[in-house]
Amino acid sequence: MTAVRGMAHYRWRGGNPKPDPERRRANAYASSRRYPERRKAREQVKDAIRRGDFLPAKKRQCVDCGEAAKRYDHPRGYENVLDIEPVCYRCDGLRSRKRGEHRLKGRKRVTPTLKADWFLTGRTLGRVLGSTSRGGDNGEA
Questions:
Q1: Do 109 and 54 belong together in one domain?
Q2: Total domains, the chain
Q3: Which residues, at least 6 apart from 64, have a Cβ–Cβ distance to it below 8 Å?
Q4: Which whole number is the average pLDDT over 107-112?
């Protein structure tokens, strides 16, 4: 028996979505509002690179594995703004998971289908998730 793949598979959902720059811009704005200390620290690092205090991360090696670095990490927190180390993507992910930064800080995870429903219908996100502040209204029309 051959494997059913692609559009013929019963769980096919349309393949990988096209990149959406508007959604990426909205997510970046929300992240900068949620974590202002990160935004300020990254801006100061960018300014230090422009001044010539640091080389760009792509011109350095990862301090953990020795591969080409891709970004700078703040290993001791964002209050020490210029205390940074160059790391590759893999090591940056490992470090953030070790520190617990990947956890949702009190927020609910929203699946892409719920996000799409929220964007398409114009409902508030709380109604889509079923958690409303008003009693008795569960988002049904």
A1: no
A2: 2
A3: 87, 88, 91, 94, 95
A4: 53
